[in-house]
UniProtKB/TrEMBL annotation:
<dbReference type="GO" id="GO:0003904">
    <property type="term" value="F:deoxyribodipyrimidine photo-lyase activity"/>
</dbReference>
<dbReference type="InterPro" id="IPR036155">
    <property type="entry name" value="Crypto/Photolyase_N_sf"/>
</dbReference>
<feature type="domain" description="Photolyase/cryptochrome alpha/beta">
    <location>
        <begin position="96"/>
        <end position="233"/>
    </location>
</feature>
<feature type="binding site">
    <location>
        <begin position="391"/>
        <end position="398"/>
    </location>
    <ligand>
        <name>FAD</name>
    </ligand>
</feature>
<dbReference type="InterPro" id="IPR018394">
    <property type="entry name" value="DNA_photolyase_1_CS_C"/>
</dbReference>
<dbReference type="GO" id="GO:0043153">
    <property type="term" value="P:entrainment of circadian clock by photoperiod"/>
</dbReference>
<keyword id="KW-0157">Chromophore</keyword>
<keyword id="KW-0456">Lyase</keyword>
<dbReference type="InterPro" id="IPR014729">
    <property type="entry name" value="Rossmann-like_a/b/a_fold"/>
</dbReference>
<dbReference type="GO" id="GO:0005737">
    <property type="term" value="C:cytoplasm"/>
</dbReference>
<protein>
    <submittedName>
        <fullName>CDP photolyase</fullName>
    </submittedName>
</protein>
<dbReference type="InterPro" id="IPR036134">
    <property type="entry name" value="Crypto/Photolyase_FAD-like_sf"/>
</dbReference>
<keyword id="KW-0285">Flavoprotein</keyword>
<feature type="binding site">
    <location>
        <position position="336"/>
    </location>
    <ligand>
        <name>FAD</name>
    </ligand>
</feature>
<dbReference type="InterPro" id="IPR002081">
    <property type="entry name" value="Cryptochrome/DNA_photolyase_1"/>
</dbReference>
<dbReference type="GO" id="GO:0032922">
    <property type="term" value="P:circadian regulation of gene expression"/>
</dbReference>
<feature type="binding site">
    <location>
        <begin position="348"/>
        <end position="352"/>
    </location>
    <ligand>
        <name>FAD</name>
    </ligand>
</feature>
Amino acid sequence: MPPSRTSNRKRQAGSKSASPEPPSKRRANGNSSPKKGSTQDDDDNNGYVLREFYPPEMSNKRCLEYAHDEITRPIEELQTAIEETAEARKNIKVKNSVVHWFKRDLRTQDNKSLALASEKAKDAGVPLIALFIVSPQDYQAHLTSSPRVDFELRTLQILKKDLAQLDIPLYVETVEKRKKVPSRVVELCNEWGASHVFCNIEYEVDELRREAKLTRLCAEKGIEFSAVHDTCVVPPGELASQQGKQYAVYSPWFRAWIAHLHSNPDLLEKYDSPGKNSKDSREKFKNLFDSSIPDAPANKMLNDEEKKRFHSLWPAGEHEAHDRLDKFLNQKIGHYTETRNYPAANSTALLSVHFSSGTLSARTAVRQARDANTTKKLDGGNSGITGWISEVAWRDFYKHVLVHWPYICMNKPFKPEYANIEWSYSEDNFQKWCQGQTGYPIVDAAMHQLNHMGYMHNRCRMIVASFLSKHLLIDWRKGERYFMEHLIDGDFASNNGGWGFSSSTGVDPQPYFRIFNPLMQSERFDPEGEYIRKWLPELKDVEGKAIHAPYERGAEKIAAKNNYPKPMIEHKFGRDRALSKYKEGLGRDTA
């Protein structure tokens, strides 16, 4: 999810007649590659940790303490704060208004926190005020892409108009210093005479700790701060194995998820949209209604061409989200299982940007998919529908993992034993991958799609992630960051989970000895080369199966004429090297 760097080196290697490039022994700062996994120094110099915002590297020992329930998790800190302030909060009376704080839930429909805030305001006969905080430092710290920020701000424009029709003001303010956000929320509540604030929980470490702080700070100031579960269909912590442990493998977790929803069908019920404020709210809060949505922070600005492109590709707002969902359910979902892995098929819902920004609730998506089926069972009926519900459930799974093993938010692999793999930090190789110049057409087409659309088909995400972390042996965290800084649908939990799977360092991974063969993946999932020709116009004149490997299948003249590079590494060499380095790393002490 990340920023491109440039390189002047043009060296290419790797066709059958060329010798493969050996593992790089140079790091970005010119020093030798480390011998025993990454250290804090490597993190600082190799571009995947922002030390401006984060402390020194967490030790593997501390990761294991989290895993073994020996130290308090951030979600538990929030729960403790809620419990310890319960007495003080229950005695707080509603004053002049109630606030809903929007974050990654930019919708009026089926929004739990917004519904609760609206109900509280209605019962007390006071107006509801909506708030959104733009935090440039959070965008930077969380590697949020410029297209994602732009989509968010465009969505806020639409949301502001929708809420205004209900006489509800949406106030958006930029708070430059992220540590000032809690105190600013309290200040605004005092300005508006609000003694109750509602929001939906975000599950990353920084956000959970901020919510815990706000729960206590607000209670001290006579304000009830209510952070509620909404992002996941089943809240984290609700599912456990027979041994009482959090699942680390998707299949048994999914079976438990399905059973839980069948036993608790209320979890799929729709929350009411907010009711209207009284007309005098417009006069009372005229300055809020008249306020504008700020521009993107300077470090997340798109240029004019990018704005035009992304606005065309990705219309914003919850109305667009529901239109896409309805179209998918009516036209595509029945064949989803058979077609979803083919990037040229245009068979997916293209809803990931709406899930990640919260313009569509996962609860809504699962409920409407269920209602389109021939049965109310989430695992029965049409295989396309059940297959898609399973894919939506992965988002829940990765957030459950994030909550239980919070160190994955801190640049650590889920499995500490994978921390000692000797990664390459060749900036030249990394840039070839970033720019789609690897010489493997399916990899390069996918990277061109990402760089142009801020999006990549899921099958291709697995292919390019495997290629970077295994063929090139480049630290998976550099790829994870590149995705986050370029994806319009960037979601930390899902992105981290996907990179963990493909690099074999994460929860429920493919075993390290399973290494995608890009050529076989290309032939299987883009058999006619439609996807490759769309995103690599330099190969559009290559005919037949040669599209998958032009230098090996007689299309070298067309490829060379159009400056398409030869493969930068031989598959067999890359595979054998990865097996060796993974085995070597796993044999080291992880302490």
